[in-house]
Amino acid sequence: MSTRIERRFKSLQDENRAGLVTFLTAGDPNPEVGFDILKGLPAAGADIIEIGVPFSDPMADGPAIQASSLRAIKAGMNLAKVLESVRDFRKIDDVTPIVLMGYFNPIYIYGVDKFLSDAKAAGVDGFIVVDLPPEEETEFCLPAREAGLNFIYLTAPTTDERRLPRVVKHASGFVYFVSITGITGTFAASASDVEGHVARIKKFTHLPVCVGFGIRTREQAAEIARIADGAVVGSVLVDIVAANVDLPSLPEKVFELVRCLADGVRLAR
Amino acid sequence: MSKPNTFRAGVDEDGHFGIYGGRYVAETLMPLILDVEKAYDIARADDSFWSEFNDLMKHYVGRPSPLYFAKRLTEHLGGAKVYFKRDELNHTGAHKINNTVGQILLARRMGKTRIIAETGAGQHGVATATVCALFGLPCIVYMGETDVERQAPNVFRMKLLGAEVRPVTSGTGTLKDAMNEALRDWVSNVEDTFYIIGTVAGPHPYPTLVRDFQSIIGEEVREQIQEAEGRLPDILVACLGGGSNAMGLFHPFLDDEGVRIIGVEAAGLGLDTDKHCASLTGGKPGVLHGNRTYLLQTSEGQIIDGHSISAGLDYPGIGPEHAWLKDTGRVEYVSATDSEALEAFQLCTRLEGIIPALEPSHALAYVAKVVPAMEKETLLVMNMCGRGDKDIFTVAKHLGVEMKGE
Question: Whole-model pTM?
Answer without folding.
Answer: 0.95
